[in-house]
Amino acid sequence: MAIGAPDTLETPLFTLGSTAVTGQMLIHFGLLLLVTIVVASLLRAWVVRVLAKYGSKHDETVTSYGRFVWAVTFFIGLAIALHTIGINMTHAFAAGGIFALVIGFAVKNIAENLVAGVILRLEHTISHGDVIEFDKNMVRVTHLGTRATTARTLDDEDILIPNSKLIGSAVINFTLRDPLYRLSTEVEVPAEDLDCVRRTLEETAHAIDWRARDREPEVFLVGRNSSKATYEVAGWINNPWHAPKQRSNLNESLWGRLDR
Questions:
Q1: What's 154's domain CATH number?
Q2: Could you read off the pLDDT of 199-218 as tens digits, one per residue?
Q3: CATH of the domain at 249
Q4: pLDDT band at 1 (very low <50, low <70, confident <90, very high)
Q5: What's the pLDDT at 174?
Q6: Which one is predicted more confidently, 193 or 140?
């Protein structure tokens, strides 16, 4: 019986197309499929682990990348396993290549955004919660997706920014290194007794309680004519998202002192 076992495994069980499938071929197919599932699962776990370093571990986007890698790996392994049992995959790969080329042109933007999303996570230049300037608008990032990044505007509106735009465009990230933000405003005053005006502006800027204490305010004379002088008053705050409100507060404080 033991001697005849190999002959039994080589006995054709059924025919698939023009290929006679034996028990031995099925065993090889099953083993390759098992190895494929294990490798695909390991790759998925590795991708999730790497990307999780650059975002939330519970982020659905990270698991989406993992599932995509698993599916691609499984498809490749399945094709190899089918080829080992005698099913000629050459024509299928050729047809698949043509099909993939056609689909590639159709989903070019989707692919660009998908790759850009991975780059954003790996480079960690834009993250959840960052305050950025995109297309001359200050927005706060609320979600990094596979195709697009969701951001909230100062008007409390959500916008979707394609990931490829964030990679290919000039984007200001106000919170990349730290949340410090230089807040400035201009004040126009009569062109007389400028020393007194400067002292008043400097004292007012220093007395503001919401400014960042590790940066000193600055006062610059930026323009003057026979009747008017223009000063720029700048200070630092710890949250750029509050800039519009704090600029208003700064203006009120400055004009409140100047009107006395």
A1: 2.30.30.60
A2: 999 999 999 989 998 899 99
A3: 3.30.70.100
A4: very low
A5: 95
A6: 140
Which token pair is 64? Answer: 């989406």
Q: What is the CA radius of gyration of the chain?
A: 32
Q: How far is CA 54 from the centre of its chain?
A: 9
Q: Which residues contact 162 (CB under 8 A, 6 or more apart)?
A: 109, 113, 116, 147, 148, 149
**CATH code for position 72:** 1.10.287
Q: How many helices (H) and strands (E) does the chain have?
A: 8, 10
* pLDDT tens-digit map of 50-68: 777 665 554 666 777 777 7
Angle at 156 between CA 242 and CA 180, to 5 degrees: 25
What band does 2 get if pLDDT is binned at 50, 70 and 90?
A: very low
Q: Are residues 200 and 232 in the same domain?
A: yes
What does pTM read for this prediction?
0.63
Region class of 17: left (phi > 0), else alpha (psi between -120 and 50), else beta = left
What's the number of domains the chain is made of?
3
Using CA atoms, how far apart are residues 24 and 16, in angstroms rounded to an integer?
15
Could you tell me the residue range of the domain that residue 14 belongs to? 8-106
Check if the beta carbon of residue 62 is closer than 8 Å to that of residue 56: yes
Contact 235, 183 (CB under 8 A): yes
Question: Does residue 111 form part of some domain?
Answer: no
Report the amino acid identity of residue 21.
Answer: V
The larger pLDDT score, comparing residue 123 to residue 240, is at 240
